[in-house]
Specification:
319 residues, alpha/beta, TIM Barrel, 8-stranded parallel beta sheet, globular
């Protein structure tokens, strides 16, 4: 599958990154995790080197190795979307070029964290960042629109100008956290001369977000419930609200397991859920993340039961 064939819409889970007890990457567990997600028929792709993979704690070489391993596992079954998360625009360009060379089908571009100090007042900074990436690679880009509270989100006018200047931006991963602006993104990106898709990552209110008209979703929770997310997306597309509500009732306990405060623990909670469901042997995270408390582990197990998830049916929802 070539880059020109990949359209970033539909359901795109973001995978986790398993570690050994010594905090080295557990490559065998990573391969098995990719196979588990890829077993869900109907997905649009898999995102690697994102928040769910603890990209903040991965070295550049580890990020590159993840691209190679992922392509080796997925082959042409599913597109690989590679997260580009770095403070350096120069490094971002090099990572984008490497991803394309190794056969990736798309990029998920993070804003440099440095821009939280007022980058929204200097749009030329993000224009320059994207220029380094697009000069190095012509892969389709999913632009990560961060929450307003992060001080890393792009004002709507800047977001629209980015899409006009860089036509390889084909979608945004929208985590804006505000329903009003979220709907504005969907409508105004669709209204561009070259429409751009909106992929929601509002996993804590997924049904409502999809009902606004999103073109898909890109979420770390897909590392555990990709099958349920896909079923929900398809029900919303079919205007089948009764079925969508029933599936959302299944998903809701996982929201409480993964997304209750503090939010930064969401992905180590997902690892713990997969251990409880027999899909990972261990749930190590790199510092500064820490293992959840015994009480929280009990809560995660309880929420998995309320969601009806077991070792026998995880990744296997059938309507």
């Amino acid at each position: 599958m070539g880059a020109t064939q990949f359209e970033p819409k539909g359901v795109i889970p973001a995978c986790l990154m398993p570690f050994n007890a010594d905090l080295s990457i557990n490559e065998a567990a990573y391969r098995a995790h990719l196979e588990d997600i890829a077993s869900v028929k109907g997905l649009a792709g898999i995102t690697i080197n994102g928040h769910a993979a603890e990209v903040h704690a991965l070295t550049i070489e580890e990020q590159k190795r993840a691209v190679v391993v992922t392509k080796n596992v997925l082959q042409s079954r599913l597109p690989t979307i590679v997260g580009i998360c770095t403070e350096s625009s120069l490094e971002a360009g090099r990572l984008a070029a490497y991803a394309q060379k190794e056969g990736a089908e798309g990029l998920l571009v993070f804003p440099p964290a440095f821009m939280s100090l007022g980058g929204h007042l200097r749009p030329e900074m993000i224009y320059g960042h994207l220029r380094h990436i697009t000069e190095a690679s012509d892969l389709p880009i999913i632009l990560f629109q961060f929450p307003i509270a992060s001080q890393l989100s792009y004002p709507v006018d800047t977001l629209l100008e980015l899409c006009r200047r860089f036509p390889t931006i084909r979608a945004i991963k929208d985590q804006i956290g505000d329903g009003n602006q979220h709907e504005r993104h969907i409508r105004e990106l669709h209204a561009l001369d070259k429409p751009v898709y909106t992929l929601t990552t509002h996993s804590a209110w997924l049904l409502g977000s999809l009902a606004m008209g999103c073109d898909g979703l890109l979420s770390g929770a897909g590392s555990v419930v990709a099958d349920l997310q896909l079923a929900l997306f398809n029900a919303v597309k079919a205007d089948d609200l009764k079925t969508a509500r029933a599936i959302n009732d299944r998903i809701y306990p996982t929201v409480r397991a993964f997304y209750d405060a503090p939010l930064l623990d969401m992905h180590n909670r997902m690892k713990e859920a997969l251990v409880l469901l027999g899909r990972m042997k261990e749930a190590h995270v790199r510092p500064p993340l820490v293992k959840p408390s015994a009480a929280e582990l009990e809560k995660i197990g309880r929420m998995m039961k309320l969601a009806g998830l077991t070792a026998d049916n995880v990744y296997q929802y059938a309507a």
